[in-house]
Amino acid sequence: MNAVVIAVGSELLTPGRRDTNADWLVERLLDLAIETVWRVAVDDDAPRIAGLVRDARRDAEVVLLTGGLGPTDDDRTREALALALDAPLERDAAMERHIASLFSARGRTAAPRQFVQAERPRGGAWISNPLGSAPGILVERDGVLLASLPGVPAEMKVMFSETVAPHLRRSGRGALARRTLRVAGRPESVVDDAVRDLYAAEGVTTTILASTGTVELLLLARGDGPAQARGRLHAVESEMRARLGEDLFGSDGDTLASVVGQLLSNGHRTLATAESCTGGLLGAALTDVPGASAWYRGGMVCYANDLKTSLAAVPGELLAAHGAVSEPVARALARGARHACGADFGLGVTGVAGPDGGTPDKPVGTVHIALDDGAEGRARKLDWPGDRDLIRRRAVASALDLLRRRLVER
Amino acid sequence: MNAVVIAVGSELLTPGRRDTNADWLVERLLDLAIETVWRVAVDDDAPRIAGLVRDARRDAEVVLLTGGLGPTDDDRTREALALALDAPLERDAAMERHIASLFSARGRTAAPRQFVQAERPRGGAWISNPLGSAPGILVERDGVLLASLPGVPAEMKVMFSETVAPHLRRSGRGALARRTLRVAGRPESVVDDAVRDLYAAEGVTTTILASTGTVELLLLARGDGPAQARGRLHAVESEMRARLGEDLFGSDGDTLASVVGQLLSNGHRTLATAESCTGGLLGAALTDVPGASAWYRGGMVCYANDLKTSLAAVPGELLAAHGAVSEPVARALARGARHACGADFGLGVTGVAGPDGGTPDKPVGTVHIALDDGAEGRARKLDWPGDRDLIRRRAVASALDLLRRRLVER
């Protein structure tokens, strides 16, 4: 079953704005075994919205709109639906009374413009809004279900979940099963080479995505029923797991930090960090995991070189002999963090994140990462180019992966 | 002048995937005074792509496609263009030779499937690709310019900049001028109330966006020529600046951290941090600014309570008397960071980020922030609800804003 998602609002076309409503709807549709074939963000122009609604009815059995249902002049979705469906807008007296009562319950009088929200194209049904004054509109015609929801995220979500989803569940055909497999420490091309022949598996679509320092394999299996979809997914997933081995660190909602946290927690071990070029980003990634206090103690940000000595006890001679960006200093940072924080493991990161500070010897992108475990520990050097943000995020992923591999070994 | 941007690729419909190619194109079009009226991500299906191209030609004078031009079976944009334009695909012998030469230059032989890249709809022109084998296709018909570019970001960008943009510049009408104003420390509704009447200014569209802990006002001014557009922008911008006063912290590419860094740098002052609930996120935000080493020294992440004492010299009695999440402890963290790092200013953050750890007294979302400046300093309490990520990011923004207001005062 196919869907189109139409997000209405001129603000969605402004640079830097992410269409998070459509993100959410696309994912919820997949949960219902419905695939989105296109998603569009359109400005507040009724004829253009109407044109896209017509196009959507050509391409999909489910058409979801979000936005443009409020009471202001910018809210043009009602008018667009009327145009697209060639059905006049009609004002519903019962909905007018409902809107008036919402305002009077708060001791206010609804302004006249509020009552445009009581208009719907002839033949449409209401989707009730438990959180606000703008109702949604549901139209079923010619085998296409069209649902128009407000753009306020909380209202859209509850109205989709309470009214639209049950409707779609009843009319659903086929089944989908999904899994995201997450890989660390290997470039996308290496992961791709390892599993590419499995992309042709019947009924399973695989998408490979490079994230910073990790690679994701998104598996989407189709079947006539849930058992077939799950069976197809399982066949591909287990083969991929076997091939990827320890490079595969988790699935679905796992992150490198959450997996490291789980491993530390299972072994009743604790971690400390000493960061230079990442400036706190490693600590931030670790403490992004709820409950991190059970296994992360803390650490230091030694951005200035003298703080590497005063906070993390890196010997001045080491800094002088090897420079701040070196394996010995990364190891000393890791050791210093472990000791100062009384942890079982210490991670140290030092590098050149750029854009300045590179030298022929140590160009921008040179990062040394070390793990101290009270024994021989381990270290890794990164020397990929990239911008400042990318270099820092890769360093964090590599540090987490260094510890993860150490923790799964035994 | 209006544009539609069509991004082709089934992977763009997978959850979590952001369509960054279209983000980039929409912003570059604005630089050329061209507004995007809709942007769509569509799967690899030729009839659906063709339908959207037809719809786009109805709504805009500029239609940009990205993706689907490579040599694989999934690459269906050429076929879609032929369908939409009702023009047969023709293979260009000169382009075939060019593709063959690209491969032979690397000592390889082009596989037969590579030569589908030499096909274009009758009447189309090539857009040369200096970085890869897939050329772009340019079609001008009925007053609509249609440009189809590869989906590889680097190739798309250079081909747009070198070929498509000069073309659009020649055919451009009207002018645009833009500005983003950035506000901190005030909720969106307060900013909205302060400037809302200016939204009606002639020829200037204002969009208000709440970012985490900050609010953005995006101004887009139109004019018959650049002088009129700039004049209209200036009138609205200067009135907004006057009304927002110190709440306005910057414009365009400024961030709170970059503004704080500039202020510190101008005054030859330095900063240190001691973080609990933010776990390094404040240090990470500061060191995201290139050249931060000139004014940021470093700090400590005191996630475990005993580290607040051992690393940041927070007296144990203070912790016992007030609890870790309290103004006195935030002040002691700020002081400890300033002393341990030898900085002019210290920032301390301690709070309950959740989802667990809240109490009736100190619910999730309670965060204390303090600034130590060697004199009376200052402190602020946050008590907004939200999820873990939001609470932590707001705490970082509030800490930076606390220091910023202190720095602009004198």
Tell me what the structure shows.
The structure is a homodimer of 410-residue chains. Chain A has 410 residues and is an alpha/beta fold. The first copy, chain A, has three domains: 2-171, MoaB/Mog-like domain (Molybdenum Cofactor Biosythetic Enzyme, Chain A); 175-251, Alpha-Beta Plaits (2-Layer Sandwich); 256-409, Alpha-Beta Complex (Maf protein). Helices cover 40% and strands 25% of the residues of chain A. Chain A has 13 helices and 17 strands. Chain A has helices spanning 20-31, 46-59, 77-85, 93-105, 153-171, 188-195, 226-244, 256-266, 281-287, 305-312, 316-322, 327-341, 388-409, and strands at 2-8, 35-42, 62-66, 89-91, 119-121, 125-127, 136-141, 144-149, 175-184, 204-211, 214-223, 248-251, 271-275, 296-301, 345-351, 366-372, 378-383. Chain A has a six-stranded mixed sheet, sandwiched between helices. Chain A has a five-stranded mixed sheet with strand order 14-13-15-16-17. The two termini of chain A are 47 Å apart. In chain A, 47% of the residues are buried. The mean pLDDT of chain A is 94. Chains A and B meet through helix 1, strand 2, helix 2, strand 10 and helix 9 of A and helix 1, strand 2, helix 2, strand 10 and helix 9 of B. Strand 14 (296-301) of chain A pairs antiparallel with strand 14 of chain B, so a sheet runs across the interface.
